[in-house]
């Protein structure tokens, strides 16, 4: 193969990092669920969750419309949002997105429902090639998390007022 080597991929990552941080400038605070510090009951459920300190990350955000529903408890607003991260940024910060993590964006909190990793450079992932030369070509480009809006009170996260 002529194109798609790790050198080509590193160029792509560098350009995308610059694009995300200097032009798009969409930042979120990512709260990783701390399983070690979260106590579960007999059924594996946690009444309160504990999160690590937030990590500021650049991403692309695709948000859905606000939907207001009325029930016997009154009106409730919901919104689905997707956050797409450069995979290499997550690798560099040792961040592994998982269901249940929380993202803070524009003073709203979003809980991760699904994690998708299906955007590949030249259609290949060097970790999953069967040919000997295949490990030198292709890579996973991004990780997207699909989230729903949740109330801050449900997360147990308290505003700290610190700069990140």
Report what the structure shows.
By secondary structure, this protein is of the alpha+beta class. It has one domain. It is built from three helices and nine strands. The strands form two sheets. A seven-stranded antiparallel sheet has the order 2-1-7-8-9-6-3. Strand 4 and strand 5 (74-78) form a beta hairpin.
Could you give the topology of this structure?
Elements: H1 6-24, E1 27-31, E2 55-58, E3 60-63, E4 67-71, E5 74-78, E6 80-86, H2 87-92, E7 102-105, E8 108-121, E9 139-150, H3 152-155
Keywords:
seven-stranded antiparallel sheet, alpha+beta, 164 residues
Helix coverage percent of residues? 10-25%
Q: Which stretches of 5+ consecutive residues score pLDDT under 50?
A: none
SSE order, one letter for each helix or strand: HEEEEEEHEEEH
Total count of domains? 1
For the record, give the distance between the C-alpha atoms at the N and C termini, rounded to a whole number: 42 Å
Sequence of strands across the biggest β-sheet = 2-1-7-8-9-6-3
Q: Work out the strand percent.
A: 35-45%
Q: Structural class of the helices, strands and pairings?
A: alpha+beta
Overall pLDDT confidence: 76
Radius of gyration, in angstroms, nearest whole number: 19 Å
Helical stretch count? 3
Task: Report the count of strand segments.
Answer: 9
Q: Globular, elongated, flat, extended or rod-shaped: what is the shape?
A: globular
Major β-sheet profile: 7 strands, antiparallel
């Amino acid at each position: 193969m002529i194109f798609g080597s790790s050198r080509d991929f590193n160029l792509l990552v560098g350009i995308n990092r610059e694009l995300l941080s200097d032009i798009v400038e969409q930042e979120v605070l990512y709260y990783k669920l701390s399983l070690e510090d979260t106590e579960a009951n007999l059924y594996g459920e946690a009444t309160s969750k504990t999160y690590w300190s937030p990590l500021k990350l650049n991403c692309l955000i695709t948000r859905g419309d606000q939907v207001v529903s009325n029930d016997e408890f009154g009106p409730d607003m919901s919104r689905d949002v997707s956050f797409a991260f450069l995979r290499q940024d997550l690798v560099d910060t040792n961040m592994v997105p998982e269901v249940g993590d929380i993202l803070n964006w524009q003073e709203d909190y979003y809980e991760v429902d699904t994690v998708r990793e299906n955007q590949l450079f030249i259609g290949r992932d060097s970790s999953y090639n069967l040919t000997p030369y295949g490990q030198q070509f292709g890579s996973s480009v991004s990780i997207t998390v699909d989230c729903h809006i949740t109330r801050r009170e449900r997360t147990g996260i308290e505003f700290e007022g610190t700069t990140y």
